[in-house]
Design brief:
Blueprint: E1 7-9, H1 14-23, E2 28-31, H2 37-42, E3 50-53, E4 63-66, E5 70-74, H3 79-84, H4 86-91, H5 93-100, H6 105-110, H7 113-118, H8 126-132, E6 136-141, E7 144-149, E8 154-156, E9 159-160, E10 167-173, E11 180-187, E12 197-206, E13 209-218, E14 225-226, H9 228-234, H10 241-254, H11 265-288
Parallel strand pairs: 1-3, 2-3
Antiparallel strand pairs: 4-5, 5-10, 6-7, 6-10, 8-9, 11-12, 12-13, 13-14
This protein binds flavin-adenine dinucleotide.
Length: 292
């Protein structure tokens, strides 16, 4: 299938890219790796008049860490670079795990984290791990920027709070407390297929007690989301298999799965129960062993 006609623009700075986007609201799309955008254009699900290539802007693919700021990732960092990064593996292992089960190496080599987030698929992998890590996004616009929590960024499938002229500039993961463990589990036809159900758990221990936990669920509602009831059931308690089971049941109740080509809603509900419990127990074990 051929791409529809469009005008290609290659800005040199982020500010220039934001200005161009703002000048043509609804008619211009940023292009990063193109693994979502070009497919949608070929299928005529998106027909932008202007395609603004972000990859001509240098210095937006960094991955850095420091004790006070935590992990900072430029929006153009590729999914493969997250999978391979020693920094990510050392400070946020579940992000490297989630990146590692995204598609094939060919896709990961060009696909960016910013594109993965902006595409707003409820089945996306790295964004779900980032929700459980308490991540925020820096959204740049011409002459300014704002910061939003990633869990507040998604408003529906393919829909976000991005305003015309805004571009995701940076992904910020706060530093994690000692004895924080994590787990990312994806249930799919094959390991690197699009998720049928996915779960990310990040859990901190204080002695034997759960001092805080974030549980993100993917592919079981219109957006990826945190299951607050399940989190509330675990917080302040000593986690046992039985308690993890009760929390997983709460996660099922909070989900709104649908039937689609990858699975039936009923199947998804049953799967959430199993993998949420498994992810809680894995994150607990990880925290006991010293964690992320
Ligand atoms: C065969 C195949 C398999 C896949 N498997 C998986 C999988 O297993 N898991 C998974 O999570 N994803 C998967 N994907 C989806 C895709 O690869 C990811 O979502 C990818 O990270 C998108 O990044 P990109 O740089 O290619 O985005 P692009 O396609 O360039 O852009 C995606 C969208 O985001 C916008 N955009 C891009 N960058 C920015 C920015 N910085 N700020 C604002 N808007 C921006 C674009 O305008 C577009 O609307 C798969 C895709 C394909 C084709």
């Amino acid at each position: 299938m051929r791409l529809p006609h469009f005008e290609y623009v290659a800005p040199r700075t982020l500010d220039e890219a934001c200005s161009l986007l703002a000048m043509a609201p609804g008619e211009a799309s940023p292009l990063a790796g193109g693994t979502d955008l070009l497919v949608k254009m070929k299928q005529r699900r998106s027909i932008p008049r202007y395609v603004i290539n972000l990859k001509t802007i240098s210095g937006m693919d960094y991955i850095t860490y420091d004790e006070s700021d935590g992990l900072r990732i430029g929006a153009l960092a590729t999914i493969q670079s997250l999978k391979n990064s020693i920094t990510v593996k050392r400070h946020c292992r579940i992000l490297a795990q989630a990146a590692g089960v995204e598609s094939s190496v060919q896709i990961r080599n060009v696909a960016t984290l910013g594109g993965n987030i902006a595409n707003a698929s409820p089945a996306a992998d790295a964004p779900l791990a980032l929700i459980a890590l308490g991540t925020s996004l820096v959204l740049a616009r011409s002459g300014g920027q704002r910061e939003v929590l990633l869990e507040d960024f998604f408003v529906g499938p393919g829909k976000t709070v991005l305003q015309p002229g805004e571009i995701i500039r940076e992904i910020r993961v706060p530093p994690l407390s000692p004895r924080t463990g994590g787990a990312y589990l994806k249930h799919a036809m094959r390991r690197t297929d699009i998720a049928i159900v996915s779960v990310a758990v990040v859990l901190t221990l204080d002695g034997d007690l759960c001092n805080g936990v974030k549980i993100g669920l993917g592919s079981v509602a219109l957006t990826a989301f945190r299951t607050r009831k399940a989190e509330g059931l675990l917080t302040g308690k000593k986690i046992t298999e039985e308690l993890a089971d009760v929390a997983a049941q709460a996660a099922v109740q909070e989900s709104r799965p649908i039937d689609d080509i990858r699975g039936y809603a009923e199947y998804r509900g049953k799967t959430i129960l199993g993998i949420t419990k498994q992810a809680i127990m894995q994150a607990l074990q990880d925290a006991r062993l010293g964690g992320i």
